[in-house]
Structures are given as C-alpha cells and as structure tokens.
Give the backbone structure.
Amino acid sequence: MSAKRLASLAWGISLISVLLAFTVWINNLGWDFTRSIETAYNTFPLFGLAAFSLMWSHYIVGSLRRFYGFDKQALTKYFKGTSVLVLICILAHPLLLMLQLYLDGFGLPPQSYLEHYVAPSLAWAAGLGTISLIIFLLFELYRKFNEKSWWKYIDYAQILAMGFIFLHGLTLGRHLQFGWYKWVWYFYGISLIFAIIYNFKSDQVKEKI
C-alpha cells in the first residue's frame, strides 16, 4: 500500500459515507429536491448525518494509517480537507434548526428546541448533542494546544462525544428510526469501537518503541 493509494482509499471511504447519508436524506424527502429548501427542518438533518459520517471515517482511516505504518503527514491533505467539511456540518446542523425555530416564533435555544421540537422525554438526547458540539469545537484548538500534556483529555472527550452523537442520532434522527440506514448506523457504532481500541493500542506500542 503506497501513501497515494492510502489517500485515495481515505477519500473514497469518506465519500461513500457521505453519499449514504445523502441518499437516506433525499429518499426521506421522496427524492424531491425542492422540499429541501422549503424549510430548514428538512435540511438540517443532512448536516448532522454527514458530520458523524465524516468523523467516523477519520477514525477508520486512522486505523488504516496505523496498520500500514504511515505517519500522520501521509494524510495531511485528507484530514485538513475533511476537517473543514466536518466543522461546516457540525455548525450548520444545530444552527439551521435554531434559525428555523426562531423564524417560526419559538424563540431562542435551548427553550426553542426543548419546548417546541424535542419531546420532553428526549431532552437528554438533545443535551448530548449540545455537549458534543462544545467538545468538537474545543478540538479546533488542536494546532495551538496539541503539544500540551493535558491535550490527551480533549482527545478522550472527543471519543466520548462520538458516543454521545451516536446515541443522539439513534434517538432523535428520523432517518434512523427504520430502514436500511439504521443498520449502517449500527455498523458505524461497532466499527468505531474497534477502531478506537486499535488506535489506542497501536499508539501505546509506538510510545514504548
């Protein structure tokens, strides 16, 4: 496996995961693209699905990089490019919902979505989404603080946030309540666990060498 082929594989995995998210999203709209611009209620879920899909692909690609023995620089362009897309998606997902709720006269968050969009019994799942957003935004400080000894706790928090988003989507995502994509989501969750374990063990071995 050459570095070039690994980069192509990385982009391919991310592209497929986003295409799957797009497919289930537009299928939910009856393949009617005009409905996607009628209201942000129809649009914002796509960004949430795409964000998790891309972040999942980061962990899987990270495992492949370690398995084939490449350093981080081998995939610099891939991670830079997809990280920008992730940032756009994780911001657009909640902001579009909040904006639509505000335009509909339901006020500002968190009351707007807790009282008018999410059932009271599922408020905890909405809270997981908010916590995860804060953690992911903290990760944007990577370049400035990644050499600090405490940065590893941000890495651990991001793993926790991935688990939160998995549950957030499974609980609140209407695209995950039935059909084939629910099984794709389960696959993401299971493979993510294996990828995290593999990455952690590989890094430990590398530190000891």
The chain has one domain: 3-208. Helices lie at 3-28, 40-67, 76-103, 111-116, 123-138, 142-145, 151-172, 180-208. The first helix runs from residue 3 to 28. The mean pLDDT is 89.
